[in-house]
Amino acid sequence: MKRIFLHVQHLLGIGHVRRAAVLARTLAASGFDVLLVSGGAPLRLEIGGARFHQLPPLRARDAGLRALSRLDGSPLDEAFEVERTRTLLELFHAEAPDVLIVEQFPFGRTQLRFELLPLLGAAQARRPKPLIVSSVRDIVRRTMSPQRVREAVDLCRRFDLILIHGDPALIGFDRSFAGWEAIGARAAYTGYVAEGDEATGTEGMGEVIVSVGGGAVGSPLLRAAAGARAQGTLADRTWRLLAGADPHEPIAAADGLIVEPARADFRALLRNAALSISQAGYNTVVDTLGCADRAVLVPFGTERETEQPDRARWLAERGLVTCVPAADLSSHTLSAAIEQAMRGPSIRSFPPFNLDGAATTAALLHRRLA
User: What is the spatial order of strands in the sheet that 322-323 belongs to?
Assistant: First the structure.
């Protein structure tokens, strides 16, 4: 049985590790022996027949995503980095994988050069050499400097395959990565990586579902949604606010307003809802494209972090969703976007998008190894 070593690091939200977990369990179900190696805060993950290893965890120090820290907020030091790298390399050599998959690098996660460059070096030196693969989302940070783009292009030469988990018919990777022409020959689109469940159940029928993923930066959206509820044509509907695991400013429930943590049946709630209001992270948008009727996106972003605003804007340009930039968010702007979404077409009226990214990834890797 061929072995896969899959490295993932979540820093602020949990989207990266959730997508990696879907890939891990799909790869395992297809006949690979998969080890998912996570460097973020420990989480309960559904990984099926895959195996799991937790590295000494770290996280982003703040929403700027520039600096890393330990989980308690203390800064990383050289001793921590050396020990974590040693642990990672020992694990890699013990596994002796046929495939190394590095999630998001070299297009992101550059703060982890201290361990990822040695990992790539170990993979290139090993005999027989494993297939070295980069696994990246549909969109990367468009604010990369020319120097960072050149660095990413140079590092891509150390990869045998770049798997882009998106659909070029919807959003091409070239829209966000300026070095596309230099890497396109070794890249392959897989389609979006979706959870793949049947999303069954009747709860949430006709509701407005407001979700903020893990809840790390979602409080402004929750407050705006609570304020917008009474301002439009959906005031008579039940509004369900999924506040994440640890909302910083809890919203009080009221008559017709349900407030609860994120739920495992989120896709079923979306399928039954009249409207979805959410941020524009990869996993939430994939769930929205696969399940929702209509949607309003309020993307998280900073001057440096452009991924969610770009994704929301480009989907809105296609007429799939309406969008409220985070800087413009208020109960009034959200209410106006809700009215626009309800007047517009259903997402389900568009041709289907490629949401089979996990199975396509498995098939691509089987073919390359064959």
Answer: 257-260, 239-242, 208-211, 275-278, 295-297, 322-323
CA distance 43 to 41: 6
Q: Which residues pair with 54 in a beta bridge?
A: 38
pLDDT digits (tens, 9 = 90+) for 226-259: 999 988 889 999 999 998 655 555 677 788 899 9
Same fold, 3-196+355-369 and 208-349: yes
CA dist 360 to 11, 69, 273, Å? 27, 35, 29
CA distance 49 to 55: 20
Query: Rounded mean pLDDT of 11-39?
Result: 95
pLDDT tens-digit profile of 157-201? 999 999 999 999 999 999 999 999 999 999 999 999 998 766 677
Residue 356 has what DSSP assignment?
A: B
CATH fit for domain 3-196+355-369, picks 3.40.50.12280, 3.40.50.150, 3.40.50.2000, 3.30.450.40:
3.40.50.2000
Residue with tokens 């349900």: 258
Domain coordinates of the chain in residue numbers?
3-196+355-369, 208-349
**Alpha helices, DSSP H only, in 229-329?**
266-272, 282-291, 307-317
CATH of domain 208-349: 3.40.50.2000
> Cβ distance 321 to 341 under 8 Å?
yes
Q: Pick the residue with more confidence: 188 or 216?
A: 188
Confidence of residue 264 (pLDDT cuts 50, 70, 90): confident
CA distance 93 to 223: 49
* Residue 339 DSSP SS3: helix
Whether cis (ω within 30° of 0) applies to the bond prior to 106 is: yes
pLDDT at 214: 59
Cα 119 versus chain centre, distance: 23
Of the candidates 154, 132, 43, the one whose C-alpha atom is nearest the C-alpha of residue 368 is 132
Burial track 131-145 (b if 16+ CB lie within 10 A, e otherwise):
bbbbbbbbbbbeebe
